Amino acid sequence: MANKKAKAIIFAFLAAVFYAINVPMSKILLRCIDPTAMAGLLYLGAGVGIGILSLFNRKDRQQSEKLSKNDLPFVIGMIVLDIAAPIFLMLGINHSSSANASLLGNFEIVATTVVALAIFKESVSKRLWTAIALITLSSVMLSFEGTESFQFSYGSLFVILATICWGFENNCTRNISSKSTYEIVVLKGIFSGLGSLVIALIRHEIIPAIGYIFAAMLLGFVAYGLSIFMYVRAQNVLGATKTSACYAIAPFVGSFLSFVFLREKLSWLYLIALSVMLAGSVLVTADTLIHYHAHEHQHTITYTHGNVTHTHTITHSHGHHHYGTDNRYGHHHTKTELEQELKSIHV
């Protein structure tokens, strides 16, 4: 069990690192690929890559619940928002530093929480409100260029728009979270990718050379597709909450990679914003884990049939997570539902 948990933790951190390479590597590829086409190729690469992976996991596909007609509004919302978000992100990366764009990605926490609060009436703790305030403050600081003129950065605005779109998308996807992971990712990747490419053609963007197309799709497969795949593998062992806590390092890894590969300079304003963002992220992680453990308990149900006694320990996790992909793949049963299932097994 210890080895299984250690492997899951490695998967969770790999998911964060795989996603973190998205911004700096996209910054490099954007020198040769237009933003909208780049967004389309990234998602198309994720959809095609995970589609190929699913061919080798027939058992997972057969055991997973398929999407139904009732899920159509959420699927459409997910796809439309996943067309808009990466386009905004690529425009943002193209007009701002890679390090700024990486850190601003944490504003998705704020966007997702506000949407969940306003539309789904989820509760928000005081600790999380403090984290939201710190992340918002850091995002405002990162949105200004230079210390002399304090001119607003349009690149940062585009990145924030991307995180807002993903905030809405997270809440759409959460409503189909119990369905097939492969089906969700493939639909998201293929249709969002094709949608962005159609927009790129309408905007008369130049189709890049085949080598750049392959590079962008490979980056999409790793940074979006494989990242989600690793995330789900980790979540199956650690649970959604702990996995998301590990995943919170992604913006900071992306920021570090920006300095390593792009040689971007550190300004004093950036360093202050980095410290504020780090404090907010620590509070989010603490709130997530504390809230999760405070609502987790176990109880035992014992059944006796003749001379045979069956004992089952059931864990109830009532923790709530208000951002990112935490609720995307979870599936929980109530005590009554579990008791009925166990009875049906032994009768």
Helices, strands, pairings?
Elements: H1 2-20, H2 22-29, H3 35-55, H4 58-63, H5 72-94, H6 98-104, H7 107-120, H8 126-142, E1 144-145, E2 151-152, H9 154-174, H10 181-202, H11 210-238, H12 240-247, H13 250-262, H14 268-294, E3 296-305, E4 308-317, H15 335-346
Antiparallel strand pairs: 1-2, 3-4
Short recap of the structure:
The chain contains 15 helices and 4 strands.
Walkthrough of the structure:
The protein has 347 residues and is mainly alpha-helical. The chain has 15 helices and 4 strands. Strand 3 and strand 4 form a beta hairpin. It is globular, with a radius of gyration of 21 Å. The C terminus is likely disordered.
Beta content comes to: 5-15%
The biggest sheet amounts to: 2 strands, antiparallel
Q: Widest sheet: strand order?
A: 1-2
Structural class: mainly alpha
Number of distinct beta strands: 4
Tally of helical runs: 15
Q: What is the overall shape?
A: globular
**What oligomerization state is this entry in?**
single chain
Query: What is Rg?
Result: 21 Å
State the share of residues found in helices, binned by percent: over 70%
End-to-end separation in angstroms reads 31 Å
**Unreliable runs, pLDDT <50, ≥5 residues?**
296-347
Features:
347 residues, mainly alpha, two-stranded antiparallel ribbon, 71% helix, globular
